[in-house]
């Protein structure tokens, strides 16, 4: 028996490769199939099943491509309705895989089709359970992502309480919990950085598994403090229920080097979005006027999904050489399949052709500290509200407008003011400024290193208490 967890940091997502006696199964695959077929080919195994724990909201799954390439059967839990052929599993149903079995445990609550898969080895022991978004390490799945459901959040939370107590918590304490997501995913609110744990330890440490917790207490705790999910979540659910363009065709159409003239022609004729995915320091120094920044070296795909509303937006890439396929792949994982190509030669080719470039005003944390000490300046903090409330600059000219809601929050900002913009480390502030500049803001100054750098300045006072500031 062989089990491998495949972790993808940008999405904080875990897929699984399981193999026994030459037969393999994949649980919750990403859009591209090569990570899974490569392992199977290397180990001389045949992929027999593709198991889905539920209709994922935060990424588009590769189950269809994987099944077509390998002949594998796609398995969902009860209540799953799709536009393609699946095996609709039943609670307690077992799937033979070499010398082991995977037993479907219907665990509704996060969604109604949500299911976990319990590995039963040749000796009848249950060493692993793959819980999807029903049970995370340190948390449980949020109960507010079901699309077009007649059930309320409280109804779903009640189902989740029953699923946890009746299906998962009754397993042996030594069973290893393998979830679908970890810290950084928006599918939960309090996930641990660890990617697996024993069920027994989770019973001791996970707030949602307290032995003396009533259903009413559980419902209140898991539904309190939820923020609105990113706008692309329900769209990805819809894609996971349907038939989409294959990943190979997406890559074939998108991985095209474009001359400056071709790049400009597509931008103008299709009103394409120019997306610059280089490091934010490079974007600050120079970029194509009107382009938006979403750096590959940060939370790339989730931020694109949060802020670019139309999944069909035509996209032109400015990308570091050698990372073109990576950018296209990571966009496709969240449903952005309309990349038209990338600028061959990058920003240098653009400049050499005599085309206009732009830059951001930027300052060091110390320069920022001196400015707010000596001048009455406006400060725009684009971190999450929870980050802001935890600690922020003590200044009555601070406005908190989190990046998640910048597309609406900007309406409460003054386009004629100069704002010194910061986030936690310098990545999100550059995204925010690139968006605000396209919305007509001119006086925006990026604070390099963000709040982490600001805190190192001796003359900056910070507080964990709410000051007389504005929250947008």
What's the topology here?
Blueprint: E1 2-8, E2 13-20, E3 23-27, H1 34-43, E4 46-51, H2 63-70, E5 73-76, E6 87-88, E7 94-97, E8 100-106, E9 115-120, E10 128-132, H3 153-168, E11 176-179, E12 197-198, H4 199-205, H5 215-223, H6 233-241, H7 247-254, E13 257-258, H8 260-270, E14 273-276, H9 280-285, E15 287-288, E16 292-293, H10 300-307, E17 315-318, H11 324-332, E18 339-343, H12 346-352, E19 357-358, E20 361-363, H13 365-374, E21 378-381, H14 385-390, E22 392-393, E23 398-400, H15 406-409, E24 418-422, H16 428-438, E25 443-447, H17 450-454, E26 462-463, E27 470-471
Parallel strand pairs: 3-4, 4-5, 5-6, 10-11, 13-18, 14-16, 14-17, 17-18, 20-25, 21-23, 21-24, 23-27, 24-25
Antiparallel strand pairs: 1-2, 2-3, 7-8, 8-9, 9-10, 11-12, 15-19, 22-26
Helix pairs in contact: 3-5, 7-11
Provide a concise account of the structure shown.
The protein folds into 3 domains: 235 residues, Ribonuclease Z/Hydroxyacylglutathione hydrolase-like (Metallo-beta-lactamase, Chain A), CATH 3.60.15; 114 residues, Oxidized Rhodanese, domain 1 (3-Layer(aba) Sandwich), CATH 3.40.250; 111 residues, 3-Layer(aba) Sandwich (Oxidized Rhodanese, domain 1). It is built from 17 helices and 27 strands.
Number of strands: 27
CATH arch. level architecture of the largest domain: 4-Layer Sandwich
CATH topology of the largest domain: Metallo-beta-lactamase, Chain A
Distance between the termini: 53 Å
Parts with pLDDT < 50 across at least 5 consecutive residues: none
Instruction: Provide the gyration radius in Å.
Output: 24 Å
How much strand content do the residues show?
15-25%
Major sheet: 6 strands, mixed
Count up the helices: 17
Structural class: alpha/beta
- The CATH first-level class of the largest domain comes to Alpha Beta
CATH superfamily of the largest domain: Ribonuclease Z/Hydroxyacylglutathione hydrolase-like
Query: What's the overall geometry?
Result: globular
| Overall average pLDDT | 94
Strand order of the largest sheet: 1-2-3-4-5-6
